[in-house]
Amino acid sequence: MKRLEAETKQEVVIYGILWGLVFLLVPAVMSWQGHSEGMPFRVGDMLRVWPGILPFFFLFLTHDLLAAPLLVKKGKVGAYAVVTVVLLFLFGGYVWTGRRGPEPMRPGMAQFREGLPPMDGDRPPMAWGAEGAMPPPPEGGRPAQGRGMPVTPEVMKILLGMLLLGANLGVKYYLKSLRGERKMQALKAESLNREQETQVLRERVAAMQTATAAVPETLAFKVDYKTVRIEPDRIRYAESMSEYLKIWLTDAEDPLVILYSLKRLSEQLPAGRFQRIHRSYLVNLSLVREFTRTSVILEGGVTLPVSDLYRPALREALGNR
To answer: Is residue 116 domain-resident?
Structure first.
């Protein structure tokens, strides 16, 4: 919704700038032309041009608010054509009914024309065939006319109005294409993020499946010429003592002493559930109750040292739990 409001404001700003230039530049150009021809410059003359611009502005505004949305937003070609024809008909009717005769001469124009050669309207009638006179009309009593029909100012105004409607549609379709491009880029970015999230989830699931498949339900150790099986969850922590290994269990007071290495045991235990905290210690993360910079405290109050080498990995493992 906020993005739509921003785009509407952008369109209003574009139209405001364009029409502001029209209301300022057109009167200025016309006044400059009159001044270049020797006519005095007056600010009031610029303001008299605005009533001639207002019909074009209202035609543009009505088309922008009523007709253009039917085609650009809703795709209703027939309804747009009907509304546009009605608008042009009303505009054309206003243009033709508003025709006026020649404007009265402004005060001061009589003095301005003094000294100029006489115009056609000031010349006395001349006989046919006299020097400088018009040739006699052909048979039929009417002067010959050109092949093409002259374009009247009213027709030019209607054509200019149609050009404005086309420009309005062009701006709307341009802004629509920009909105579509932004939306496409947003969808691509969202799709890429979802693909990345999906890939991360797949990797996690694959890692969990691999870890689950690689970890046996029980671990088998040789103790006093017999095999002892232990579930991984029963291990509280393990302590390395040279070539031997002490495994402390949750349901036994005495440790299990076996000829084993701490590294080999850590490779057989499920990842994410056990973590080495020292070159000589491995703990069950689910039993850790406190973690400081130099030690961890397990359930039952057992305190074990934490070395600088394994501290970052331990912090990360406990943070993910």
So the answer is: no
- Domains of the chain: total: 2
H-type helices in the chain, by residue range? 2-36, 43-62, 68-72, 77-97, 109-113, 153-214, 262-268, 311-319
**Roughly what angle, to the nearest 10 degrees, separates helices 77-97 and 153-214?**
150
Query: Facing residues of 256 across strands?
Result: 247
Q: What's this model's pTM, rounded to 2 decimal places?
A: 0.40
CA distance 163 to 157: 10
**What's 278's domain CATH number?**
2.40.50.1020
CA distances from 194 to 171, 182, 187, 263 (A): 35, 18, 10, 38
Distances (CA, A) of 58 to 93, 129, 209, 281: 14, 53, 70, 85
Domain range for residue 224? 219-319
Residue 44 CB neighbours (<10 A): 7
Question: Residues 201-259: pLDDT tens digits?
Answer: 887 777 666 655 555 678 888 888 888 899 999 999 999 998 899 999 998 888 999 99
Distance CA 194, CA 189 (A): 9
Please check whether residue 168 is in contact with residue 80, taking contact to mean a CB–CB distance below 8 angstroms: no
Contact 95, 56 (CB under 8 A): no
